[in-house]
Amino acid sequence: MSAAPSLFWRVLPWVLTASVLAFVAGRSTVPKTTAPAAFASYAEVYDRVAPVVVNVSLSEPDTRVGSGFAVARDQVVTARHLVVGARDVVVQGADGKAVWMRVVGTDARTDLALLRAESPVFEPAVLGSSDALVAGDTLLAIGNPYGLGHSLAVGVLGSRERRLVVREGGPSVDFLQLTIPLNPGNSGGPIFDGGGRIVGILAGTHSEGQAIAFAVPVEVLKDVLPALGKGARMTRAYLGARAVETDGGLMVSDVVPSGPADRAGVRVGDLLKSLDGQPLDTPETLRALLDGLPAGQRATLTFRRDGEDQAVDVGLTDWAERAVAVAGMTLRPNPGTGGRVVAVRPRSRAEKAGVRVGDIVRTVDGIPVRAPADVQDMLDPGEPAQIEAVRNGVPVVVQL
């Protein structure tokens, strides 16, 4: 009896090992194979929406190539900076047929333009909504990169509400930031959701081609389309003064030399009261009122100085058409960009950073700029910034 337990414990490890081997042998040692996951195809969406997309080109006043889309049988939306200064534009549909179209209305505040043909030839797009989009949602773009014609690009929404931080009179658009491979020539083209509905209009791309682009939400287009259809040429009225909220009211904190406010006699420290009879209580109110006034219009500005109310007549100028001097460089308007550098002051921030005469500024800290005033608004605080420009046709980046 005493030998049995000893034998049992000596045999047990061999029994367990044999059992495990038998179990493993009973299972297949060949790994199961599964079919590789198929990449998503957007062929059906492309075939359905490509007819609403058009290629836009013009040779006067200079050569430009871009994209657009039909919003009616005889109407096309594109980017304003593509057609500014032009009257007639060549538009080519997916079938390759070229049509001459006339610039009907433009809006510098949103960089949108409306073109009209003499006869109904296009298939209109379906305008959707960007309100429900969240980062990561799939987006599609069809455009005319480098003049190559209808080309599909697929990406995702990278972020929402990329707004230019402006001091006065600047853009009031919350851009959609896209992570999508787009190139010059796509500007003005549509951004679609997965269902083929337009949710944005491409405004610009990152100058180094890092698949970063910015689009105007379709809601902005819906707001301005009626005015564009009536022939409106909307700009941003420019006052040339910055104001901040204080306990005493909306106080002028900065006046641009030789600007409209300076010429009217406005000074730092004045408390703004109203513009054309509309009360001024916040910087946002001032920006909204200026956005609603056309450039070139005269307006009555009231303010309090030394305890007395005063009123002055101000001739508002065009925000997008003025030259600026900022960070030691002088910028003059260049369609669709932050301007062309025409002078660089010695030993200035711009010269130390490597800015050169002839550079064309496209973005500041990754945000597209559409006029020299955009650049001034973003650089005036004096904080470090990254400028992306084009120099002799080659993208460059400088650090201020």
Structural notes for this entry:
- The protein is of the alpha+beta class and 400 residues long.
- Among the domains are: 138-216, Thrombin, subunit H (Beta Barrel), CATH 2.40.10.10; 240-315, Pdz3 Domain (Roll); 323-399, Roll (Pdz3 Domain), CATH 2.30.42.
- The protein contains 8 helices and 28 strands.
- It has helices at residues 3-26, 43-49, 80-83, 218-229, 260-264, 283-291, 349-353, 372-379; strands at residues 53-58, 64-72, 75-79, 88-92, 98-107, 112-116, 138-143, 151-163, 174-179, 190-192, 198-205, 212-217, 233-234, 237-238, 241-246, 249-255, 271-275, 278-279, 298-305, 308-315, 317-318, 324-326, 329-332, 340-344, 360-364, 367-368, 386-391, 394-399.
- It has a 6-stranded antiparallel β-barrel.
- The longest helix has 24 residues, at 3-26.
- The radius of gyration is 30 Å and the shape is globular.
Shape: globular
CATH architecture of the domain at 138-216: Beta Barrel
How much helical structure, as a percent, in the residues?
A: 10-25%
Would you tell me the structural class of the helices and strands? alpha+beta
Radius of gyration: 30 Å
Q: What is the end-to-end distance?
A: 93 Å
How large is the count of helical segments? 8
Please count the beta strands (DSSP E, at least 2 residues each): 28
State the fourth-level CATH superfamily of the domain at 138-216: Trypsin-like serine proteases
Proportion of strand residues: 35-45%
Low-pLDDT parts are 164-171
Quaternary class: single chain
Mean pLDDT: 82
Biggest β-sheet: strands ordered side by side in the sheet: 1-2-3-6-5-4
CATH C-level class of the domain at 138-216: Mainly Beta
CATH topology of the domain at 138-216: Thrombin, subunit H
Largest sheet: 6 strands, antiparallel, barrel
